[in-house]
């Protein structure tokens, strides 16, 4: 009888310590207008599309859109603590830097902001994934090249996955872009969700096993 009680107690401890694969896990998208849905309804963004898909197929996963149009890496860093406190995510996908690049912000400054975000999140025990960002060559070949390279450098330095930039497959198709030539339109959201859903799901599946 005593051995049975010990066995049951040990099993309960294991269940409490080891997170099952089906445990509820959440991911915050910390992005700019490309994720916030500039020019379209919040309910029609690619992030909202993924949320609806997961409600049907992976109810143990949730995704929260904490993106703000016009945001920069400095803006993301400034509001990161509040975002974490409000949503308590298990993972954060950082999609920031485009506005920094379009405004010609210093490469070192962008890299420093991304690094501080990642270090803070890691310190809170939160898994991080980083989006590669690309900008048009308006700022000159050297700046554009250095800008593109900084994301891989940050990801490698902090051992975080670097997710390919979803706009590379969208921006070359005028029928998927708004008239400003910068932002994806309503028709593009489902296509972006098709690209991003398996990548973000893989992140949460990994987090669920940690």
From TrEMBL:
Residues 29-190 form the SGNH hydrolase-type esterase domain. It holds the Pfam family Lipase_GDSL_2. GO terms for biological process: lipid metabolic process. GO terms for molecular function: phosphatidylcholine lysophospholipase activity. InterPro entries: Ester_Hydrolysis_Enzymes, Lipase_GDSL_AS, SGNH_hydro, SGNH_hydro_sf. It comes from the Bacteria. This is Acyl-CoA thioesterase-1. It comes from Aliidiomarina maris.
